[in-house]
Design brief:
- The structure is a single chain.
- The chain is mostly helical and 181 residues long.
- The protein has a domain at 1-53.
- It contains 11 helices and no strands.
- It has helices at residues 2-24, 32-50, 55-59, 61-69, 74-87, 93-98, 105-118, 124-130, 136-148, 151-161, 166-177.
- The protein is elongated, with a radius of gyration of 19 Å.
- The protein starts with a helix and ends with a helix.
Length: 181
């Protein structure tokens, strides 16, 4: 009971701190991104300390809030997604999947790569859909991710290889290049 209350208190305290800083502080006049960064940092610090949500999910907060607040460009968000893949925390996979649909190519590329590193089998349908992305790099990383998932991923990629379109083409190409039997 005390643990549940601590989580609720931490959750709402984090949001309150974020709003207070974001709406009422001006840490560096003329640079609103400085105040926005501090507001997000306060939110994350409170959520980490109170363990309101899993740490890996808390780590994704900047990926969602920074672009909305005008703090980060796509390359930085892509690098953050890449780091999440390297950390290997399965809790991050569900949130990384949504980044396959990001407007920025670098973020989609790193999301596909991270899902392969995490071997997130639940993401297979989304990775198959990413095989038809407008970016060759996203398609390539999605195909690579499917191969990294083992026999199930390879089977899905083989089934796609027989289809028409860019998804089928990249599946055929990656299977041939990686000499997957």
């Amino acid at each position: 009971m005390v643990r549940v209350q601590k989580k609720y208190i931490g959750f709402f305290l984090g949001i309150a701190a974020f709003l207070l800083i974001f709406l009422f502080a001006d840490l560096k006049p003329g640079k609103p991104e400085v105040t926005a960064t501090m507001a997000v940092a306060a939110l994350m610090a409170i959520w980490w300390v109170s363990e309101t949500i899993p740490l890996a999910v808390t780590a994704l907060v900047p990926l969602v809030l920074f672009p909305a607040l005008g703090v980060l460009d796509g390359r930085v968000r892509g690098a953050a997604v890449e780091a999440l893949g390297r950390l290997g925390d399965d809790a991050a996979a569900a949130h990384v999947v949504s980044l396959l649909h990001d407007a920025v190519e670098a973020v989609r590329v790193q999301a596909a790569r991270a899902l392969g590193q995490l071997r997130a089998e639940a993401a297979m349908p989304d990775l198959v859909a990413a095989l038809d992305d407008t970016s060759w790099w996203v398609r390539f990383r999605a195909a690579e991710a499917l191969i990294r998932m083992g026999s199930r991923g390879v089977a899905v990629l083989r089934a796609t290889a027989g289809q028409a379109g860019v998804g089928g083409e990249i599946a055929t190409q990656v299977l041939a290049e990686m000499a997957v039997n």
